[in-house]
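Quick start: read one record
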Amino acid sequence: MDAPAPIQWLNSTMPFSLLPCTLILIVIIQLFLSSLYLHKKRNPNLPPGPPPLPFIGNLHQIGRLPHLSLCRLAAAYGPIIHLTLGFIPTVVVSCPRTAREVLRTHDLALCSRPRIYAARRLFYNCTDVAFAPYGPYWRHVRKLCILELLSLKRVESCAPARAAEVSRMVESVKASANLVNLTKIFVLYANGVLCRAAFGREFLEGGEYERHGFEEMLEDYQVLLGGFSLGDFYPGMEWLSKVSGTERKLEKTFKRFDKLLDEILEEHMEKRRRKREGGGEEEEGEEKDLVDVLLDVKEGEGLEMPLTLDNVKAVILDMFAAGTDTTFITLDWGMTELLMNPTAMKRAQDEVRSIVGGGRTTVAETDLHRMHYLQAVVKEIFRLHPPVPVLLPRESMEPVTLHGYEVPANTRIYVNAWAIGRDPVTWENPEKFEPERFLGSNIDYKGQDFELIPFGAGRRGCPAITFGTVSIEIALAQLLYSFDWKLPPGVKAEDLDMTEVFGITMHRTEQLVVVAEPYNI
């Protein structure tokens, strides 16, 4: 009798397909062998931490909001803890002293980045500034950002763009009848400022970028970067992302971003071609946007490391995605906290109105340096609600000693900025919104004081601090100057939902809807 065909045999003798079972068996064997290997390598002088389970390590203890889970683990095991996330040795620091060791003392040894699966796909193989591993390319693009894209001169040159978007924001509030959705207005403001600075055009509601679904793309980007990819914790098993559907989501989001960036670049390059063919030169005082600056660098001669178009797109996406979220999140949390703390709201408004005064309708950026209480409010927002609660992971390039413990090479390192901002050893009443704590204090958020590090510090500190904070301060000052604010009728401060949305950045789940009464100047 002839042997049955393979498929017929499987169907007649097995209740389910053999292939999935084989794959599962292979995965289990690989996990088991790798777990044994890691157990043998474990250093007895590692930082303390909860015991890992076989195969998954401590992944089950991270939770949906990692900054909260890691803070609870730090309360149990200390300010520096060791975890095994899948097969990845990981160290988490949650106090200023240890953060200083990571971000300053051992900055060079700990300033590389792990090649996160989502970042590899979204940022053109990690050729942006935020996720590029340490090396010549990263040094080159960071220098470019600091000297060309985000210098003080460049930030000052964007003042007209910020002024236009602040004016648009005020008009949007006035046109919102009884109830104002401030969250929506803050998103449009943040997108508008970055679109003008980066692309040289306005971000209009219902306009081209909205037709592309730009806001939705940015939300997807934040969730994907902060999400769980098996390949990030089980090296060599990235193929599991195809099974889980992560790769499909990444590919969809990447293609949408790539198409939009291609259109923007082609528009800029066509404009440059027309200018060259016409023999035209730049008009005196004509301001270039960030895309123009990057194209100038790409087309420059004698570069030590020429940029490709994909490199240019990676840097543009980095600037835009990081800049919009920082601005929108800080403004949204800030107005939420001020509405919940009317005494702080009144003090901030009194200061802004006394400094501007004189019948003016707008706040000038030159006024901001005199608004000490407003600056204290911004610091307090960053302390309680850092836009990126757990700073982007670092990776050790060589063994170091932190807090007396040994940290081997190739260890992933996280700094919990959220926990540091609420450390009861550092801060009195750490859960309370008290801007007064910063009056007369020298603590700042620019990377020199490790009690407050919303933008990180050291070589991997965010190069866009100045650009981001001035966009926040001028918007907040104008809103406090132009309107009196209160919660809708029947809504009390304690009714506000402070739950955070999951992602690499953290904003509130609920949108902020308020009542705005124009201030009679």
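The longest helix spans residues 246-277.
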